[in-house]
Specification:
heterodimer; A: 182 residues; alpha+beta; five-stranded mixed sheet; elongated; B: 570 residues; mainly alpha; two-stranded antiparallel ribbon; 17 helices; 2 strands; 1% strand
Chain lengths: 182, 570
Amino acid sequence: MSISPPERIWWKPLHTEEKVWLALALIFTLSTFFFMPIWHVIGSQNPPSESYKVSPAQFRDRVSAFVEQYVLKDEAGEEREEKGIPIVHPPPGSDVYLMAQSFMWYPILELEKGKTYRVHLSSVDVEHGLSVYPLNMNFMALPDYDYVLTITPTEAGEYPIFCNEFCGIGHHRMVGRIIVKE
Amino acid sequence: MATQVEQFRTCPVTGLKVHLPAENLIKANAVAAVVFILIGGILALLVALTRWPAVHLLPADLFYRALTAHGVNMLIFWIIFFEIAGLYFGSAVLLNARLAAPRLGWFAFILMLAGAILTNIVILMGKADVMFTAYVPLKAHPLFYLGYILFAVGALIGCGLFFATLMIARSEGKYSSTLPLATFGLAVAAIIAVLTIVAGATILIPTLLWSLGIVQHMDPPTYRLVFWLFGHASQQINVAAMVTVWYLLATLTVGAQPVSEVFSRTAFLFYAFFINIASAHHLMVDPALSPAWKVWNTGYFFHIAVLASMMHALAVPASVELAQRRKGYTRGLFEWLKKAPWGNPGFSAMVFSLLLFGVLGGITGVVFGTEQLSIISHNTWRITGHFHGTVVAGTTLAFMGLTYYVIPLIFRRELVGKKLAAIQPYLFGIGVTLLSVGMMMAGGFGVPRRHWDVAAFGGSPFAFEFNPVIYPLLTMMGIGAILAVLGGAIYVGVTVGSVLFGKRVTSGPVSISFGTSTPASGTNPAKNPQEKTGGFGEPGTFVLAVIFLAVFIIYYFLNWKWLASVWPVG
């Protein structure tokens, strides 16, 4: 009975089912554990581990400088934007900045297919979550921390990005874009 | 010692000596639990009907408020009040002992109640639209954190009384060799609870001071790490308590006894040692932590805590199979299961709790808690579906099943509406399954948790359309939520109705069964013809377990396949 103390000698040999199940379950749980470090070697998708402290003001300055340097311009020299957010085309392999702010993503990044970028992700106010649709890739944007996502877009297209960490009453309006060119 | 004698009554069903002050505290905490599941359940309906785009019930501000209150009431107040009742039951009642310091128990109860009411008032006044997690630097009213802290201190005192009662029982010779398995399981839950609550205080006290302006700065990743030491580890209290309830219900419904005490006890010990570093599960795609830290901590020490759950998942049904086979249901692999008391809500609740916890909650917990797979699940509705599998289909349903025994045994009232009670676990189980599967599948398409408007993004200039396949899934979630809330309403109705209007259970042998196997009395049914240890006595359970493992493996590797198709990142 589970409601009364067991007999004096309660450490009896296990039943066969229990032994076999224990072995099967142990093999499986060890496999699932070790598959994590193994994927760091054989896989291409791992949570980034590079991050730095950065104050919101510092990060905002870096984002501004980045946008000023690489913002796209049309023939007339006008800066290109969509709905008030500048579209930025950084060179492949460069440091790229993506700022989360209640309730917008800034700027719109235009990347090239097959090229690798170092995307610096941070927030300048509360916590936000970056979700890239339709890939369903998700990373946290925390204030005070610069999270460096080394990322390689593999297909051209427009990728909506949205916030998936509750950040306030306008949370659901926090949507932006990443554009990947051929 | 006349006074002490008067303080006990002998239970006519189990023969246990029940300490009356303990009984009153059990009643108070159980009633509070039911009140908070009622509040949480109403909020659940409001939240689900808002997230179902066809209904989209509440405006944004009320939705986020209702969601905050739903999380706090269900995850903290309902469950922990019930667990405190369970701790008093598992110590004082099961050990025939007196509860240590009942007055302190009432003080703890009042603290918890005051904390819970305070937190609810602050949330409903709109002063704490910060979600259950209250991640800094989102700031709530100071009284919100104070309510949490008062509740936690009360719960901590409750745990202390549990341990003190164990010591009293031991010194008064109520048990000699070791604790009954149920008390052992609760002891593990209480150990985890102490660590959890201390972690909660460690982070909530500075956060309270910060909200008062005394502390200037809170570090977001530190808050997340320590908060989840409280927030996730408190779910491990639920796991240990829920598994204990499985063993209890197996005993109460079919007279099962653990197949191997050493197997089940070892699995409980694995929980105590390896489960409480789980806050990593929430931090896999956070900055500031190294991959080694993440892998080690999310991996529960080589997944030993997962192994523990898999051991219980075999041991509980095996004990039922063994008990049924001893009754003569020996034909084929599954006669024991077919002839089980399916009309007894204690039994059906235990079976659904175990099955759904394992399949909906357990498998996905390992998958989404895998470092890399978190990339394609973090903060999506997959997570919400996962924990509705664990906490709602698992813990809540198990507690509901136990309630149908608490009412006759502790409140000494016969159940009113036995027929409704008999279908309640089915309704609730099916509802939560639809809800959880709908959430997880929609989450696989990127649908986020905690989001007011996935259909139109509140008119955002950059609004986009999700894959339309999510809409039938959201409908499935909505229908499931309605069924689950209906099941919850029946639970509350039967409980309240029985406690207020049920026929008094007086004396003499009382049947608390639902027309099938009566629980055996507290003695050990030791003499058994096939009491051979080391045999292959539960083949049906083993086959079911192997099927479960196959599903687990398939889902696990499917997720790696999905991960491998997204952009390389590192």
